[in-house]
Amino acid sequence: MQHQRPKIVDVARLAGVSTATVSRVLSNPDVVSAETRRSVEEAIRQTGYRLNHAARNLRHRRTGGVVALVPNLSNPFFSQILAGMAAVLAGAGYNLLIADTCAMGGETLLGYAEPSRADGLIVLDGTLPADGLKRRVPIVLACEWIPGIEAPRVKIDNRAAARVAVEHLIGLGHRRIGHVMGPPGNVLSEARLAGTEQALAAQGLPPPLVLPGDFSLDSGRLAGEAWLALPAEQRPTAVFLASDAMACGFIGEVQHCGLAVPRDVSVMGFDDIELVSHMTPALSTIRQPREAIGRRAAQCLLAMIGGEAPEGDIVLPTELVLRASTSPPVTTPAIKSREAGPARL
Amino acid sequence: MQHQRPKIVDVARLAGVSTATVSRVLSNPDVVSAETRRSVEEAIRQTGYRLNHAARNLRHRRTGGVVALVPNLSNPFFSQILAGMAAVLAGAGYNLLIADTCAMGGETLLGYAEPSRADGLIVLDGTLPADGLKRRVPIVLACEWIPGIEAPRVKIDNRAAARVAVEHLIGLGHRRIGHVMGPPGNVLSEARLAGTEQALAAQGLPPPLVLPGDFSLDSGRLAGEAWLALPAEQRPTAVFLASDAMACGFIGEVQHCGLAVPRDVSVMGFDDIELVSHMTPALSTIRQPREAIGRRAAQCLLAMIGGEAPEGDIVLPTELVLRASTSPPVTTPAIKSREAGPARL
DNA sequence: CACCCTCTTGCAATCGATTACAAGCCTCCG
DNA sequence: CGGAGGCTTGTAATCGATTGCAAGAGGGTG
Q1: If you measure CA to CA, which chain A residue comes closest to B65?
Q2: Which stretches make up the HTH lacI-type domain (chains A, B) (predicted)?
Q3: pLDDT tens sequence across A281-337
Q4: Mean pLDDT of B138-165
Q5: What is the pLDDT of residue A318?
Q6: Is the minimum distance from the CB of B135 to strand D below 7 Å?
Q7: B135 band by pLDDT with thresholds 50, 70 and 90
Q8: DSSP assignment of A26-38, as one string?
Q9: Which of B:164-193 have CB within 8 Å of A?
Q10: What order do you get walking across the sheet with A95-100 strand by strand?
Q11: Which nucleotide is nearest to B5 (CA to C1')?
Q12: For residue range B171-197, what is the model confidence (pLDDT) as tens digits?
């Protein structure tokens, strides 16, 4: 009859105590006398007893888990954020459930925002329907956010970061600057575009040449094609792309066609994913503190689960990382001869 | 008094039926008469009732979740595997819980392998202790595996794949070939090294120059430094690295020092992560079917959870992807003159 | 010796949904 | 008209652990 998984009453019987005492040994050992405790522990060992979490969760009315909704698990940008979250949550005894929002419908997703499924929710996808997420479990929004929802946001100042990036390009002497956007409608895309425009306008420069994109490698490659297709004298001498992945695709395409970076075009990315510091040329970019974003989001959520009032928005600092993909524009021969011409005579 | 979360008895009261009927409407609607069903559904809508999963799980003795143990979430190699798993599992109504094994101790990890936590376990980390994982929930091992454990494995033929990679290099005319290994003790590292050695031995060539590594970008960079530090005439003319990430680091370091790939050294990677097709030069590599690995592992686990006998090992095909980072060795001047010398006179 | 206090332990209700079993109601047939 | 059989529904036990309440043991004090 011992072929079944042992339950708490089996332990109790063997130790000659009540189930209440066994339970106390498990979750509140101090109130049990040392002697009893030892014999219960011995009985646990002998029976090979393991706690049933479903039962405990039912009683405690909590799940011990936190769900993260990620737009695309395949995107390496998110994995480090998740790693940061996982570290903090594990330290507090919480599981991290990860759900890929592109792999499932909205109905399924809402199922995760329930107290009986998770004690909290971290949303990394700004494209979810706002209405379904209201009045459920504590929620924190990280990176992207959903305009309609009242919840703390852990983010960076995308607009300011974009401005810094473009100011750097302007400072190098670039005047014709291109911008490759993220997916249309995305809050990050809009903010980074706005920052780009602001930086240019502040210097009295014309607005950027804007190319469409969606953060993916391949959309960066397509942007590269579009750039190459321009007449040489119309090409921006510097391009700021809203993600590193796109910058990689862009550079790959440009190099593939025999042009060089930064000689023929300066390129600036966004994110500072690990790989781009090892490319040739190493990519100049804006560093997002990905682990820190994950950690802060998790801490913020834990605080809310613990009953504290939700914090306001948390804005983490970014950093301009200058590497080898940006340089002053090379003056074109035509201009050079015009400028240098008189002196040469 | 309605400030509490409504339970099934609240719905039952409102609809004027018993809790059993409400439960049946929820999980087995066909046995309930159409009229009753409609009134119960109306009551559910009015109360805003939501099912309590903890209670259902307790009763069903299942959790509806599957845990994946991943060695390092930050590694983009795993994210696509997870995406594949998540897609299959979501389709079958299971959650995917992801745990980063490097963020937690072994004790914590074993806690995931319990029937009350998860209905199954997919292990992607070969370095876990074998003993703790026995006799718990259904387990599938993917990519890496744990020698002591009896469980279906979803994998590729690492040795054969490495052989194919090295045969390609040999076929191009390379004779001095280097290999940068994965982490010591790892089953993948061993198999890929063995395949490399086999391919060389089969052609009567000397064993490879073996450099240490750990799959990470930075260890690839260090391998690049080590390669550069060799006297030019001892440097392998081709290097096969056990991961794409290392290949990126290696190429970055070599290019950084002014040498060119593949002119000065052919480089071959392993994995075919998305980024490497966009680098310059585009990386020749072995493609692992990552999504398929995740999908097959999930399917296999679902079958086991469903009570089917565990399948045998599943070996998925790899593919040699030839791009621009490999080419015939450039004959060195010394050799060239020796060979061409007589003819020249 | 009666009384109070502290420490340990057990009893039994509870968390919320599921389901085996039985009962009630119809209809149909011999 | 009695009974078999099909539907639908309700009753109550069950899943396994937790915990408020109270009782019993032991020690100290007036």
Answers
A1: A97
A2: 6-60
A3: 999 999 999 999 999 999 999 999 988 898 889 999 999 999 999 999 986 554 444
A4: 94
A5: 98
A6: no
A7: low
A8: HH-GGGS-HHHHH
A9: none
A10: A314-316, A153-156, A139-142, A120-123, A65-70, A95-100, B95-100, B65-70, B120-123, B139-142, B153-156, B314-316
A11: C16
A12: 999 999 999 999 999 999 999 999 999
Instruction: Check CB contact of B95 with chain A, cutoff 8 Å.
Output: yes
From the candidates B2, B58, B79, B101, which should be mutated to test the interface with A, based on the most A CB atoms within 10 A? B79
A57 and B52: CB-CB below 8 Å?
no
How high is the pLDDT of residue B340? 40
Q: Which amino acid is at A312?
A: G
The answer to whether residue A1 scores a pLDDT higher than 60 is no
B60 touches strand C (CB under 7 A): yes
DSSP secondary structure string, B281-321? SPPBEEE--HHHHHHHHHHHHHHHHTTPPPP--EEE--EEE
* Strand C–CB A201 distance below 7 A: no
Q: Choose among B54, B249, B278: nearest Cβ to A217.
A: B278
pLDDT tens, position by position, A69-109: 988 887 878 888 998 998 999 888 898 888 888 766 666 77
- With cut-offs at 50, 70 and 90, classify the pLDDT of residue B332: low
Burial class of residue B145 (count of CB atoms within 10 Å of its CB; 0-12, 13-18, 19+)? buried
Min Cα distance B100 → chain A (Å) is 7
Strands A238-241 and B153-156 turn out to be unpaired
Furthest-apart CA pair in chain B: how many Å? 109
Please give the Cα distance from B257 to B262 (Å, whole number): 14
Is the CB atom of residue A9 positioned under 7 angstroms from any atom of strand D? yes
Give nearest nucleotide to A54 (CA–C1'): D16
Q: Is the pLDDT of residue A277 over 50?
A: yes
Q: What is the pLDDT of residue B109?
A: 75
Mind spelling out the 3-state secondary structure of B198-240?
HHHHHCCCCCCEEECCCCCHHHHHHHHHHHHHCCHHHCCCEEE
- CA–CA separation, B168 vs A285, rounded Å? 36
- The full set of domains in chain A, from first to last, is 8-51 (1.10.260.40), 65-155+291-316 (3.40.50.2300), 158-288+321-329 (3.40.50.2300)
Residue for token pair 């936190």: A66
Average pLDDT over residues B319-341: 73
In chain B, residues with a C-beta closer than 8 Å to the C-beta of A282 are 252
Average pLDDT of the residues of chain B: 90
A61 touches strand D (CB under 7 A): no
Q: Nearest-CA residue of chain B relative to A245?
A: B275
Would you state the pLDDT for residue A132? 64
**CB of A323 within 8 Å of any CB in chain B?**
no
Q: Does A245 touch chain B (CB under 8 A)?
A: yes
Nucleotides on strand D with an atom closer than 7 A to protein CB?
7-12, 14-20
pLDDT digits (tens, 9 = 90+) for A171-198: 999 999 999 999 999 999 999 999 999 9
pLDDT at residue B106 above 70? no
